[in-house]
Amino acid sequence: MVKILDNKLIQQIEEICTARGVRLTSQRKRVFELICSSKKASSAYELLEELKISEPQAKPPTVYRALDFLLEQGFIHRVESTNSFISCCSCNAHKHSSHLLICDECGNVTELQNDKLVTLLEENAEKHGFKIHNHVIESHGVCQSCSSN
Questions:
Q1: What is the per-residue pLDDT for 3?
Q2: Spatial distance between the Cα atoms of 133 and 38, rounded to a whole number of angstroms
Q3: Which positions in this protein are listed as binding Zn(2+) (predicted)?
Q4: Residue spans per domain, the chain
Q5: Which of 10, 25, 28, 73 is most buried per CB count within 10 Å?
Q6: What is the mean pLDDT of each run of 10 residues along the chain (149 residues)?
């Protein structure tokens, strides 16, 4: 299933980059568009193959540099368990922790935000004298669409 790419989202990240004084190059923008165009998480090599359609000269470092930039700016998340990438539901409108629901059958990934869960995790960490800097919770299972098939 392909998501409809929202031009407002592209405009939003362009405005964020301008405000931050960082460059959203055409390649970075294209990699972001490719990530946003799928409900599934995309690997760097899948993104490279897609990028080569419009930029045949593209090489792995091109994609990796774009991914590093997009991660640094908070526009995407890395799905650690599959070493792949999804768009951030808030595009770094505010710092947040993510809970990813990953369907093991179709590969779709849904990002959730739950302040109660984050508070509970922080309280548990604090009890052990641990300060969390960042976390992404990944839950693997079967989505509603796949479980009804």
A1: 47
A2: 29
A3: 103, 106, 143, 146
A4: 7-148
A5: 28
A6: 63 93 95 93 96 94 96 91 88 69 93 86 94 85 91
Number of H helices, E strands in the chain: 6, 5
**Structure-token match 């179709």, residue found:** 106
Output the DSSP codes for 21-79.
T----HHHHHHHHHHHTBSB-B-HHHHHHHHHHH-TT--HHHHHHHHHHHHHHTSEEEE
135 annotated as a binding-site residue: yes
Global pTM value: 0.82
Q: Is 140 annotated as a binding residue?
A: no
Q: Is 96 annotated as a binding residue?
A: yes
Q: How many CB atoms lie within 10 A of CB 140?
A: 11
Give the per-residue pLDDT at 21: 96
User: In the CATH hierarchy, which fold is given to the domain comprising 7-148?
Assistant: Arc Repressor Mutant, subunit A (1.10.10)
